[in-house]
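Write out the bound-state structure for zinc ion.
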Amino acid sequence: MNGTLIVSLDFELFWGMLDCCALEDYRDHVLGGRQAIPELLKLFEQYGIHATWATVGFQFAEGSREAAAYFPESSLRPSYGDKALDPYGWFEKIGATEAEAPCFFAPGLIRQIARVPGQEIGSHTFCHYYCREKGQTVEQFAADMAAAKRIASDRGYELTSVVLPRNQCKKEYTGVLEQLGFTAYRDEENDWIHKRIKFRPLLRLLRLADVYVPLTGQGGYIPKKEGGIWNLTGSRMYKPIFRPLEFLEGWKIRRIKKQMLHAAKEGLTFHLWWHPHNIGVRTREHLKQLEDIFSYYQQLQKTYGMESLNMKEAVEKYTRTGA
Ligand SMILES: [Zn+2]
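---
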């Protein structure tokens, strides 16, 4: 079988960062990320890149009132022990429309993305739900995903692919996805660093080093179907420019290309992902790097027949060929 390049984006505006930093400190990344999206779409069209935009459910709403019509009842919202993670409290603080609250709503942008060939609107849960957080339950998760399906469906999008926030997957939870009719999810990178290293500072250091040098090998794989849902594990996150190690940026891109080459030659799947806000500052430089990657994909397409597919198209291909 020919190799597959899957691209997915976690489209979350500020919803994924509520507990990480203050909105004032991150607003330029989120707004810059919004501005980068039309530019990115142009590159996707130019180089034939198909991608899944895993979108937070709240973002489909024109504003707060419309989002609220889809909220699960209070007992079915995530009862996290850590209240900083709760997104529902934010609705009192944010503006009422996409124009007033561009860090929280994006129906216009979603329409713009969906118009571009090869772009799939997927799900990043309804409320940016954390499946491994203490306090929440699988019933709450099911209510959240059902709400995501509903709000998207009312706007004409049928969600079948999912990226779970912070890649927090659990078997019981992917079972819920399957019951709700989802056909693919992106699991967390499945390498020895993630499996064996439990000491977080060391884990982070090794993961950082792996961005530049091949500590974990090439990341290409043959996808597996788990029950009724395909596990489309992420192979690599495209990391934004990291200033202290900026002199290694060339290594970062070279590493990604080598991984792509390996997948193309061996007929494997390579799944590259990032967030729009990752390229929200220093956007020109990031788009240049991405263009370099996409143009390399075109070479691999010509030489080895590699295909760029979104998650939904990848499922169709694997179902057809039995992976
Ligand atoms: Zn996220």
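---
The first strand starts at residue 4 and ends at 11.
The longest helix spans residues 23-47.
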